[in-house]
Amino acid sequence: MIAGRVLNVLRTAAAAAAALVMAGPGAAQGFGQPKAPVFGEVDTGHLVADLVPEKASIAPGETIHVALRQRIDKGWHTYWRNPGDSGEATQIKWTLPAGWRADDIVWPAPDRQPTGPLMNYGYSGEVLLPVALTAPADATPGQTVELTAAVAFLVCEEICVPEDAVLGLRLPVAATPGGPHPQFGKTVAAALAAAPKPAPLTAVFAREGEALKLAVAGAPLAGADFADAYFFPFDGTAIDHAKPQAIERGPQGLTLTLTPGYGFQSPTPPAGLAGVLSLADGRAFEITAQAGALPAEAAGLGPPPARAPPAGGGGELGLIAAVGFALLGGLILNLMPCVFPVLAMKAAGLARHAHERREAQRQGLAFLAGVLATFLALAGLLIALKEAGAVAGWGFQLQSPPVVAALSLLMLAVALNLSGVFEVGTSLQGAGSGLASQRGMAGAFFTGALAVVVAAPCTAPFMAPALGWALTQSAASALVVFLGLGLGFALPFVLVAFVPGLLTRLPRPGPWMVGFRKLLAFPMYGAAAWLAWVLTVQAGDMALARLFAAAVALALAGWMAGVAQRRQAQGGRPVLAGSAAGMLAAGALAAAVWPGYQPASAAAAPASAADIPYEAYSPERLASVRAEGRAVFVNFTAAWCITCKVNERTALSTAEVADAFRRTGTVYLKADWTLKDEIIAAELARHGRAGVPLYLVYGRGSQDGVILPQILTGKTVVEALEAAAAG
Question: Both 127 and 219 in a single domain?
Answer without folding.
Answer: no
